[in-house]
Amino acid sequence: RSCGGCVLNKLGGVQFEIDLPNEKVNIDSEHSVDTLLNTLKKTGNYVSYLGDK
């Protein structure tokens, strides 16, 4: 497993906040939702899209 922050930094064009207690990541990015989800799935963690802020 790798960390979500690590793979997001490698993707570039992403700003994010990790909320560890609630196990959520808030992302602001120029990339599509599909690109972000596919990138985060590479961590081996459960990933889902909860919608816009």
In words, what does this structure look like?
- The protein is α+β, with helices and mostly antiparallel strands and 53 residues long.
- The chain has one domain (4-41).
- It has helices spanning 4-11, 33-41; strands at residues 14-19, 24-29.
- It has a two-stranded antiparallel sheet.
- Strand 1 and strand 2 (24-29) form a beta hairpin.
- The longest helix is centred in the last third of the chain and has 9 residues, at 33-41.
- The mean pLDDT is 88.
- Keywords: Chaperone, Copper, Copper transport, Ion transport, Metal-binding, Transport.
- One of its GO terms (cellular component) is cytosol.
- This is HMA domain-containing protein.
Summarize it.
The chain is α+β, with helices and mostly antiparallel strands. It is built from 2 helices and 2 strands; from the N terminus they run αββα. It is globular, with a radius of gyration of 10 Å.
Low-confidence stretches: none
How much helix, percentage-wise, in residues? 25-40%
Task: Kindly give the count of domains.
Answer: 1
Sequence of strands across the biggest β-sheet: 1-2
First-to-last CA distance: 27 Å
**Gross morphology:** globular
Radius of gyration equals 10 Å
| Count of beta strands | 2
Order of helices and strands: HEEH
Mean pLDDT: 88
Total DSSP helices: 2
Largest sheet data: 2 strands, antiparallel
Structural class: alpha+beta
> How large is the share of residues in beta strands?
15-25%
